[in-house]
Structure formats: C-alpha cells, structure tokens
Amino acid sequence: MAHMGDLVAEMLARYGVELVFGMPGGQTTALHDGISRRTDRIRHVLMRDERNAAYAADAYARLTGKPGVCDVTVGPGANLLPAGFIEALNASVPMVGIVGELPLDWLTLKEKGIASQGFDQLSFFKTITKDSWLVPSVIALPEMIRTAFRVATSPRPGPVALIIPHDIFDAEWDEEKVKIGIDERAIRAPFVRSAPVGRDVAAAVALIRKAKRPAIVFGGGVHGADATAVATRFAERLGGLAVTSLTGRGSVPETAAYAAGTLNPLGSWAAIELAKEADLVIWCGSKASQNTAMNWTLPLPEQATITIDCDPNEHGRTFRPTVSLFGDVREALDLLEAALEPQSHPEWQARIAEVKAEGERQKREEIESERLPMHPARVMAEVAARLGEDDLVISDASFSAGWIANYIPARKAGRGFLYARGQGGLGYSTPAAIGAAETLPGTRIVTVAGDGAFSYTIGELATQSQRHQKVVNVVLNNGRLGWIQLWQEIFFKNVQSALLESQSCHPNFAAAGEALGLKGFSVETPDQLGPALDAAFAYDGPSVVEVRIDDLATPIHSFKRRMREGADAPRPRPGTVYKLRDWKVSPDIP
C-alpha cells in the first residue's frame, strides 16, 4: 500500500532531486521507505548530524542550481538546522528542508515538550528561511511541495521548510484522489528571469563609455544566475579591472590580465589597492557586504557606480548607485554586452599589471619563507600545484578562506570553489565535501580548514570513509583559534581563550582520520609536505593531511605588519572602541 512518504519521494524525484541528505526519525520513516523504492532516481545520504545535512545539501545546490534537500525529524533533529539554513538564506542558496512533526491532533501538547520532542517548529523556521509551512492535510501536501520548490528557486533563491506531521506522512496515498504534478520551471534556480529596462541599460553603457578606469566586482549572484560565461566575455569587453567576492570566485579566470583576485580583507592585496583607484565600479551580483566593501569604505564618494542584482532591495542598501540595473545578472550582462563596443584603457591596464606584479612579489616572500612552523602560504602553493582544472576546493570559514583566495587561483570560469560566507560559520567544509562528492562522483574534492573549524564536524569523516569519497581534507593546525588570537593579541593583549592545545593535550587529526577509516598524514616540516600531499592526492578515497603552521600568520593585510612586529608592537589604549564601518582599507591602529 502506497503512503504519503511515497508521494513526497515521487515528487522529489520528478523535480530532479537525485540526493536527499539527512537523518531519519520515527516521524519521517515513511519518506525513507518511499525513497528506498526509487533508488534508480533518488538516493538518501545518511549523515551523522542534522547540522551537516544542511551543509551537504547546500553544496549540492550550489553545484547543480537545484534546491538542495535535507530531511530531519521533529524536535532535536529540527533544531540543529539553523546554521545551514541561515548560511543558505544569506548566500541565496535554494534549499528545501523536509521536517518531521508530531501528529496534527497533538498540536496543543507541543508546548514545553509535553508531547515528547515537541516545540513550535513553524515559528522557529519562519525566522531562518524565505518561508515555512505546516502541512494541514493529505490533500494539501502536493500543492505545498510545489510551493516550496517555487519559493526556494524564485529570485532571490533561499531555503524553505516544509513541516509534515507524522500522521500525514504515514497516511495512505490514494492516487485517484491525490494527484501529483510538478512545475518544471522550479527544477532549477532561478525560477524566473527578469531583465533591466532599456533606459537603465543605456545609462549604464554611457557611464561605462565615459570611464577611464572601470572596475567590476563579481559576487555570488553570478554563479546563482549561471552567468560565468557572459561575465568573462563582459570583463574582456570592459577593458578594465575585474575582482570578485569570495563566493564570486570563478566568475572569471583569475589567470586573465584584467583579473586581480578577491576583494576582501582576507583577499588580494592587488584587488584592495586597485579597487580604490577605479573611477567606475560595477557591483554585479554582489551585496557590497561588509567584507567585499572593505568595511563599507567602498565605493569611495568620488566613484561612479552601477549595481546589477535581481533583488530590488539590494540597489541602494549600503550606498546610492549612479545607475541601477534591476534584473537577472545573466540577462543584464547579455544586454550590456550587446550594447557596448570593446573598451580600451591601456594606461589603466598597465597600472593593473604593475600592482598585480607587486602583489605577486609579496606572496612569493610568504611562499618561500623557511620559518617553522610553516607559513600557510607554502602549504597552499603546494596544494595548488597538485590541483587539476576540474578539482573542487571547499573552504571552511575564517582564515582558511583567505589562504585559499590568495594562493589557489581560479584557473577557469565556473564553480571551482565553495565558500561558507552567507554566515561565515565554522564547520562547513567537511559536510559540504560529502554533498559535493555525491553530486560530482569521480571529482577530487579538497577541503581546507583550521584545526578549530575541523573539530566541529570531525564525526562526518566516518561518512566520507563509509562512502569512500575522493576527498583530501587539509587541516591547517596552529593549535588555536587564529582569528580570535589575532583580535585578542591586538586589542586586549590576552590570548588565553583562543588556545586549543595545552602541554597535556595535542589533538592529532591525522590519527583521528585513520581511526575513522581515512588515510592520515602528519606534516611538521617542508620536506614532509610534498610527499604527504602526493600520497593523499593519489589515494582513491578520503584522507586527512594535517600540517603544523605558524600561529602568527594571517591573511588579513591590515594586520600583517603588527603580527610581524610581535608582542612589543604598540596596542590600542585600554577601553578604546573601534567602529569597523569607520576603518580605512589599511587601518593604522593607534
């Protein structure tokens, strides 16, 4: 006898969902039963922790453009989803969460867990999703699934939660009474595309023609719109500077003469310096968020600006643009490309080359450093030398994002990197690698995480091992929370709460990987690094390469001088309050 779990599984399969990531519970067992009868079209990936199911689904969504689907049971399962859902919400990643619930006639017993594991899940999810719904009946379920996919994939994409009571999941599915169908437009984001109006396109073209030093900032919206091909063509036509946000990396190949890397305090020195010299800045699929806008010191008051975004609320949120192009990124760039002849700015191009060369010289000094423990730049350069063009790199939060951005170039346009920048929470890379490996079987996945971030989700290494995934997990181990140490050292002269090691405690992540079924490699010196990476890259399965790194190294350019000066460098006066919005790009902290 078919049940409503069969209906949900069937509709997911018809929406093209090949993978569901999650953790079963008694209230959602019907869904798993339905999936098990359709394994030729849809499979379930069992995670060790519901938090990680959302991150794995996030990776699937970013790589396919389809909504990532995760499933959790009522109560303890549901309340572990927020980190992944907020990441997806802020990063505009389409996601559908299938959430179990107590039976409908128990609704009055949910408060304070009178009915075991009960709480007000609908109110809870409303705050961290585009929208959430409680399914009230068997008849309503198919339409609510259609609504979930439409809302998740419509501009601006994001996560939704569909809360299905236990009695509805287990109810009989009478196919004569409860018909199903899907809206094929919602299989992939964006659900619909819009284009800027003609007069705004004309105004933008006129502004570009007038510019002497044009620049374009590509954000994650380029990938969301599947627009990397036209972004690359437009950057070439612009004849100026192209930089990206962290999530926008791969919008254009960073090997191109016009590309200067990542605009971010963690990113490229050349990008930071050159962005200030532009007379026109085009913000394309970028929110001009705190980090990409360098603590909102960009754009400068004298810079003309164009914004391109499918979300009307992004035009003018942190600055007033000279011209706003409201519409889908790909459609807008197509219109601009068609209306704009190739531009030439030889003096600006020469300046870009000059600054990039100086940036490369600075990076080379760090890569060639003989200091022990090793500088992370040296580790990243060795990783970059072994990466194939189709390999995927997944960054965890904090300093790892900067080390990757500075020393592992995007050699071609496309989704070669995944960054957790919607919320910037630690613990993204390991579960995201599981989602990526299942989505792209045969592709080598390389993760980079600090020892603090890696500790968050170390249990999911067992999932990588169980599924024999081709993942190289690089752990940059400095024995502390690097960002917190830096902040405390500069502002408070006290690093006690940042320490992750003691004389009696030295966690061995390579050994932990071995214990969970992976290959483990511990690296202390440069001569050990190459052989360890060679062995990990050659292994047809998951591995952990743990590298002891310099705990004073930071990718934040503003702070590098102070960390080199060491403990005797001048520090802020006690009680001084610093407003990040007022910082300059390279603050001279008193």
TrEMBL record:
> Which cofactors does this protein require?
thiamine diphosphate
PROSITE patterns to which the protein is assigned, alphabetical: TPP_ENZYMES (PS00187)
The chain positions of domain Thiamine pyrophosphate enzyme N-terminal TPP-binding read 4-121
**Sequence ranges assigned to domain Thiamine pyrophosphate enzyme TPP-binding in this UniProt record:** 400-547
UniProt GO cellular component terms: acetolactate synthase complex
| Location of the Thiamine pyrophosphate enzyme central domain | 201-335
**Where is coiled-coil annotated?**
none
Tell me a GO biological process for this protein.
L-valine biosynthetic process
- Answer whether the UniProt record assigns the keyword Nucleotidyltransferase to this protein: no
Q: Tell me which UniProt keywords the record has, alphabetically.
A: Thiamine pyrophosphate
Kindly indicate whether the keyword Hydrolase belongs to this entry: no
Q: Which domain of life is it from?
A: Bacteria
Pfam families cross-referenced by the UniProt entry: TPP_enzyme_C (PF02775), TPP_enzyme_M (PF00205), TPP_enzyme_N (PF02776)
The record's GO molecular-function terms, alphabetically, read: acetolactate synthase activity; flavin adenine dinucleotide binding; magnesium ion binding; thiamine pyrophosphate binding
Query: Gene3D superfamilies this protein is in?
Result: 3.40.50.970, TPP-binding domain (3.40.50.1220)
Which PANTHER family does the protein's record reference? ACETOLACTATE SYNTHASE CATALYTIC SUBUNIT, MITOCHONDRIAL (PTHR18968:SF13), THIAMINE PYROPHOSPHATE ENZYMES (PTHR18968)
Q: Which family does it belong to?
A: Belongs to the TPP enzyme family.
Name the UniProt record assigns to this protein: Thiamine pyrophosphate-binding protein
Q: Which organism is it from?
A: Methyloraptor flagellatus
Organismal lineage: Bacteria, Pseudomonadati, Pseudomonadota, Alphaproteobacteria, Hyphomicrobiales
